[in-house]
Amino acid sequence: MAFQRGIKKSLGLSLVATALLTSVVIADDQKLETVEVWETQVTSSSINVGSSAIETKQADHLSDLLRDLPGVDVGGTHSINNRINIRGLQDENLDITLDGAKVQNANMFHHIGNLLINPDILKKADIQVGTNSVVSGSLGGSVAFETKDAKDLLRDGKEYGGRVQGNYNTNDSYGSSVSAFGKITDKVDLLLYHHYVNNSNWEDGNGLETLGAEGDIGNTLIKLGYDISDVQRIVFSYDRLKDEGDYSPRPNFGRGYNEARTGKYIFPTEYTRETISLKHEIDLGDALLLQTTIYSNENKLERYEKLNGVTAVRPPLNGVAQTEGQLDGTVETKGINMKAQSTVLLGGVNNTFTYGGLYDEQTSKVKWKGAKYGDDEEAKTGALYVEDALSFSNGLTLTPGIRYNHYELDGIFANINDDEMTYGLAAEYAVNDNLTLLASATTLYKGAEMVDVLASTRTSALSNSNLKSETGINKEVGFKYQVKNTMGVDALGFSFKYFNTDIDDYIVSNPSTSVLTNGGELELRGFETSVGFQKGAFNALITYAHSDSKFKSSAEPLDEQPGDSLSVGLDYAFAKNLTLSWDSLFAFDLDDRPASTSTTRYLEKESYNVHDIAVKWKPQSVKGLTLIAGVDNIFDKTYVAHTSINTAYYYLGSWASASDYEPGRNIKLSFSYEF
């Protein structure tokens, strides 16, 4: 097996070297090509330097797409444990949508993530770092994913087209996708897409193979669009992603703890997301841009649990030990989301109104061995909001906003019925054509969540009648500077933002009873800065992010805080059809951690640096063919991302590390052919 891996790595390195040598030979002065339709456009409010903030990537994991954005991280190495983190706040504290549908559900299981997103089919990812507008109802920011449709993919006046794609990773997966798209009539277009990935147990930088990561992922997307008129369009979308495999009992933990606690036991697991949406858009220019999405999103988690040789998997039911059985949990969200924008001139001042509302109902149901496991839960969320960006002739723009939030929870841990108003005020002042000053303050609200779907406390949990929803305020100040054709470069941009976030009644889980309780006031402090520049065919983006968190009562931080990180992204187009990219991420030591207990040790988050390289070639002799070769983690570093688990637990007389080590060196080869 080791010999086979060596052959795979040698072959991959040879192909990368060949591609790099080829790039030197055929370089010329051809004009650069525009963004490829099969790349993903990523924008972030933490990189406020104009068009250079838009990055294009081809990723097979959310961390590939988002991790080098300042203030953003993605924790978890397992395929069912993608966890987006913004400034130390995990995805349950963010607004996350896919094609306008809410896909951030209640926690399915605290040992896995809540997102099943396939980066390959994404058209855009728009990240708002921090809540700076009443349009968002989250504590920490928002992520809006948008998938491609047939109109995006058709080019050169063609009526139909297709694409086949395949990829191979030496550490240790392979996959492929096939798509067909075209116009059924002049007004109707259709996209059919299927993507498949086979994952094996990869190795970390020390050559240690992980445990319980072998599985298959399948994603099917069907999008049917109808142009009602030149200004109206309606799109029906069916998106299903299934992740199935023999997975470790605690996929967010590394091999050390899983093996110490349960040996090499793995559980047959199926994790499925099914999203159905109907989106209507009307675009009347400045007068009205209205988008309405009606959707249903279902997350289903099924796994067969069995005795681990030491203790029963589930607590006794009716006095009977639960040693083996099938656990089925479903969270379903049905809702509507409306957002509009209108620009009008009032009293000589340009007013851009953003207004809308949303409503959704979420239900959670769980069965153990076919019988009801704990009470069903239901949550209802409603909101109405409006904000007005008033643009004055002196370069000042003021944006006041107000949002009405309604939340009802009929849950195991608590029953809540809230009506809460939140407010926002932002200001931008253009000092000149290059420099703009920024400031904002937005109050926050978030209702208490439903209990984990797979939580063993569902049948024995104590309710907390005193549980309060979370409120707070996020304040930011900064500036952005942009200039062209100066200091020997074609374009240069610099941005800086300092944030100060206070969250009252932050909800935590009591470690001894698992009951949800308010942990007091949480303070988040930090900044994000970025420098981007472009000279000819060369582009560079350098970012730095710093974050601190602290509970006011105990002075302890969040375990998930990312600390300090520096990213460097370099791209050079040798020719119209050949591009080389280099990405580096430096994370610095973080010794600030929660206090350890008799059973839990929070380990120091050690510094690491990881570097990736890739080359993309589109042979001119074969139109539509794209070849990509790259190496992730070039120097085979052994490290744990700062937002992943980095903890040790005491079990049966000894300490076992649960640290979730990242994969070691990975050679990536892929091809795609469009026709």
Q: Explain this structure to me?
A:
The protein is mostly beta strands and about 675 residues long. The chain has a single domain (about 1-675), classed as Maltoporin, Chain A (Beta Barrel), CATH 2.40.170.20. The protein is built from four helices and 38 strands. The strands form six sheets. The protein has a 22-stranded antiparallel β-barrel. A hairpin with a 2-residue loop joins strand 25 and strand 26 (about 490-505). The protein is globular, with a radius of gyration of 25 Å.
Could you give a quick summary of the protein structure above?
The protein is mostly beta strands and 675 residues long. It contains 4 helices and 38 strands.
pLDDT averaged residue by residue:
89
Shape: globular
User: Could you tell me the strand content as a percent range?
Assistant: over 45%
User: The biggest beta sheet, please?
Assistant: 22 strands, antiparallel, barrel
CATH superfamily: TonB-dependent receptor, beta-barrel domain
Top CATH class: Mainly Beta
Q: Which segments are poorly predicted (pLDDT under 50) over 5 or more consecutive residues?
A: 1-35, 50-55
- Domain count: 1
Strand runs, count: 38
Task: Using the 3D structure, state the CATH architecture.
Answer: Beta Barrel
CATH topology: Maltoporin, Chain A
Beginning-to-end CA distance, first to last residue:
38 Å
Supply Rg: 25 Å
Q: What is the number of helices?
A: 4
Structural class: mainly beta
- Helicity, as a percent range: under 10%
